[in-house]
Every structure is written in structure tokens, then in C-alpha cells.
Design brief:
Layout lengths: L7 H10 L1 H16 L2 E2 L7 H5 L7 E5 L24 H14 L10 H4 L3 E5 L4 E2 L11 H15 L4 E5 L1 H4 L11 E5 L16 H11 L11
Parallel strand pairs: 2-3, 2-5, 5-6
Antiparallel strand pairs: 1-4
Length: 222
């Protein structure tokens, strides 16, 4: 694996050396060899490469990558340039419009957020094509739970944005005396009207960051 940079290699070294991670790696070798898997294996850890540890301001926690061609590229909720916006991402942009009066962009690539300190982390980092949650039980939950705990321990005044039951189950891993947790329903069309719309998480994030001496996030992708 290529170095991640940004302080991640040292922090994650014990996880990458753990037998449980080696089982994930062996599973992935087989999956990539015999099936179509997303994202591309070289994009699996893009969220770390794009957001150095000491620059983290916010963590948005997704579930697993998009499972259709050309979508996933290692950042939760993000799709590559030229790909139509998935429904959940459309709803995220609708909430940003409602919250901050920022118009929906034409492109769903969230790299600009990542480079500002928004770690776009899925709880499961890979998926077999056309089969949502197909890698959910291969060990990724152990890995990403540990990542959340390491971020909790090694950063201060980080905003953790948790949408949906899967993400909200991670609340016990986060010290609310050091960080801010924002929770709501998932932006999926099945649940967005049950508390995601109107959550104001984007403005709340910036209010908290500013109050704690950090630069706010520019959520505008236009």
C-alpha cells in the first residue's frame, strides 16, 4: 500500500499490522481478483490521503461506498466528476441550500470539502458491484471504529456528523467533552423527511468551529 501521508501512517500502523486487518486484506485480494469491487483498490483510502490528521475539523460518517460504475472514489457520499448525483447526495445539497442558501453544484465530487478538513469516512470502505452492504461483515467495522477512536483521542474540537442509525451507533466512541456530535436521520429519500431536512448541520458545524478558533468550512462547491 502506498503511504497515506498527513500523519496517518504512524497513527494507523498498529491497525494495519493487526491480524484482523490482515484478514480484511486477504478477503479484498480475493474479491478484487474475482469480482468487480468499488472503489478502485488505489482509492480505498482516499479520505485519509486528502485530509491530514492535524487538519481534521469535521468527520462525516457514511455507510458503504456507492455500488454502481464510476461512482465511488473513496470519499463517503461523493461521486466522481461527470456522474449523476445519487439521491442521498441530492438531498445533502438541498439541505445546504436550505441551511446556507448555497445552490446545488453540477458535480458531486466532494474533494474540496476533504481538502478543507472534512474527513469523508465510510464505516465500510469497499463493496461488490451492484450489491449494497456486501462487504459489511468482512471486518471493516472493526477498522473504522478504531479510526474514529483514534481521531477522538488525537484531535480536539472536531465535529462528528452522524446521519442514520449505522452512523449514530458510533456515539459511544466519541468524547462529547472534547468534540461536537450532530445527529439526524439519513439523507436517503427513505428517511430524509424524518429529521435530516432542517437539521442545519452545516451552519452548526461552522458556528462550532468558529467558536473554537478554527476556520469554517466553505460548503460551496460551485
Amino acid at each position: 500500500m502506498q503511504p497515506l501521508g498527513g500523519g496517518w501512517d504512524e497513527l494507523l500502523a498498529p491497525l494495519f499490522a493487526d491480524e484482523r486487518y490482515l484478514k480484511i486484506r486477504n478477503f479484498l485480494k480475493c474479491e478484487y481478483a474475482h469480482h468487480t469491487v468499488y472503489p478502485d483498490m488505489f482509492d480505498l483510502y482516499n479520505c485519509f490521503r486528502l485530509t491530514p490528521l492535524n487538519q481534521i475539523k469535521c468527520v462525516i460518517l457514511g455507510q458503504d461506498p456507492y455500488h454502481e460504475p464510476g461512482q465511488a472514489h473513496g470519499l463517503c457520499f461523493s461521486v466522481q466528476a461527470g456522474i449523476p448525483l445519487p439521491p442521498s447526495l441530492q438531498n445533502i445539497f438541498k439541505e445546504i441550500k436550505h441551511d446556507l442558501n448555497i445552490n446545488q453544484p453540477n458535480c458531486g465530487d466532494l474533494t474540496k470539502w476533504a481538502k478543507q478538513g472534512v474527513l469523508l469516512l465510510n464505516t465500510t470502505l469497499s463493496v461488490r458491484a451492484h450489491q449494497a452492504n456486501s462487504h459489511a461483515n468482512c471486518g471493516w467495522a472493526w477498522f473504522t471504529d478504531n479510526v474514529i477512536q483514534l481521531i477522538n483521542a488525537n484531535t480536539t474540537h472536531t465535529v462528528f456528523i452522524l446521519w442514520g442509525g449505522n452512523a449514530r451507533s458510533k456515539v459511544p466512541l466519541i468524547d462529547t467533552k472534547k468534540h461536537l456530535i450532530l445527529q439526524s436521520a439519513h439523507p436517503s429519500p427513505l428517511s430524509a423527511y424524518r429529521g435530516f431536512f432542517g437539521c442545519h448541520h452545516f451552519s452548526q458545524t461552522n458556528k462550532y468551529l468558529t467558536a473554537n478558533g478554527k476556520q469554517p468550512i466553505n460548503w460551496d462547491l460551485n
